[in-house]
């Protein structure tokens, strides 16, 4: 499994001199929130502050700070995509002379300011049509050359973020399981694919954790609170065992099972009569996963719809959690 922390460490270890580009403040509608960042080297980037002309301007300024000639040379380099999600990016923004200077760009009577010294710069940019980015808000971006202290903070921050990622447990590595794992691997979550067959775990994305076990239902009991469970094994009886375990937890963000109306009805009958389940617990089951608005059963399509459904459930559960905690505290008081 290759995590974001590992990718960040690899980038920092191979990139040479780099600059940290961070969204310091925002007003109105903007591509990314305050705190979003990317790391810029002479030929590649790690992360994004939202793309568009704003990002090109920031990359250009960062490369000027890395080398006085870098801003001019960047536009002449071949462009392409590197491994690990990094990309070579062209710069179309107007260059600003380095060395304690400031430049301005017109924008509906307002000014985009770029203030620079030897180790840091600040861009204050209105997102208007003059720069080809009509979000309507305003973004302040800070750019700093990365030293050992900043590098340690970046790694520590990435480790802290990774430790608190919501968990999604995907049971089954068949055609839909493989496609869903690939879709989920792109999201800011910790994905665990659980299987009873070793061959079904082959070819999984490198950012996905895999577990081979003869008792996948036991994994449900060990999962952290707020986890999501998507069940789509090769065996309906095994699906039922896993779903029953998940529904009996009251702290899940999502429990979904692939299948038809008939399969769901069969599970309901078994769950209520043989598994000591309740109607309230059954009511939390999402089946079929991905909804039924799109009548397309191809695995990549099901995977795309299910990934969006799972991510929506995780965000909703996370936003509801503080309110529930406050309510419990008030009742206890």
Can you tell me about this structure?
With 333 residues, the chain is an alpha/beta fold. 38% of the residues lie in helices and 21% in strands. The strands form two sheets. Strands 3-2-1-7-6-5-4 form a seven-stranded antiparallel beta sheet, with helices on one face. Strands 10-9-8-11-12-13 form a six-stranded parallel beta sheet, sandwiched between helices. The two termini are 45 Å apart. About 11% of the residues have low confidence.
Could you write a compact summary of the structure shown?
By secondary structure, the chain is an alpha/beta fold. The protein has helices spanning 4-14, 52-66, 70-74, 148-163, 175-184, 217-222, 236-247, 261-274, 279-282, 299-332, and strands at residues 19-27, 37-40, 45-47, 102-107, 110-116, 120-126, 138-145, 167-171, 190-195, 209-212, 228-231, 254-257, 285-286. It has a seven-stranded antiparallel sheet with strand order 3-2-1-7-6-5-4, with helices on one face. It has a six-stranded parallel sheet with strand order 10-9-8-11-12-13, with helices on both faces.
């Amino acid at each position: 499994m290759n995590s974001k922390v590992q990718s960040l460490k690899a980038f920092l270890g191979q990139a040479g001199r780099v600059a940290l580009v961070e969204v310091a403040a925002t007003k109105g509608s903007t591509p990314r929130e305050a705190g979003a960042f990317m790391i810029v080297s002479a030929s590649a980037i790690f992360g994004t502050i939202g793309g568009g002309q704003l990002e090109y301007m920031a990359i250009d300024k960062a490369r000027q700070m890395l080398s006085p000639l870098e801003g001019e040379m960047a536009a002449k380099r071949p462009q392409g995509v590197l491994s690990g999600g990094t990309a070579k990016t062209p710069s179309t923004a107007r260059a600003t002379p380095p060395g304690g200077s400031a430049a301005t760009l017109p924008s509906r009577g307002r000014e985009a300011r770029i203030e620079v010294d030897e180790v840091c710069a600040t861009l204050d940019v209105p997102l208007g049509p003059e720069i080809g980015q009509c979000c309507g808000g305003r973004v302040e971006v800070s750019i700093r050359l990365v030293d050992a202290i900043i590098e340690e903070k970046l790694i520590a921050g990435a480790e802290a973020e990774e430790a608190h990622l919501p968990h999604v447990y995907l049971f089954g590595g068949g055609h839909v399981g493989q496609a869903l794992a690939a879709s989920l691997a792109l999201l800011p979550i910790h994905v665990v694919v659980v299987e009873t067959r070793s061959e079904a775990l082959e070819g999984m994305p490198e950012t996905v954790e895999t577990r081979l076990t003869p008792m996948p239902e036991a994994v449900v009991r060990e999962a952290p609170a707020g986890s999501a469970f998507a069940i789509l094994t090769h065996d309906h009886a095994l699906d039922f065992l896993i779903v029953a375990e998940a529904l009996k937890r009251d702290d899940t963000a999502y429990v979904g099972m692939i299948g038809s109306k008939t399969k769901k009805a069969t599970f309901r009958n078994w769950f209520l009569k043989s598994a000591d389940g309740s109607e309230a617990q059954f009511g939390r089951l999402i089946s079929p996963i991905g909804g039924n608005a799109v009548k397309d059963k191809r695995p990549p399509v099901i995977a795309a719809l299910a990934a969006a459904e799972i991510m929506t459930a995780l965000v909703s559960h996370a936003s509801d959690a503080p309110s529930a905690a406050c309510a419990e505290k008030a009742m206890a008081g």
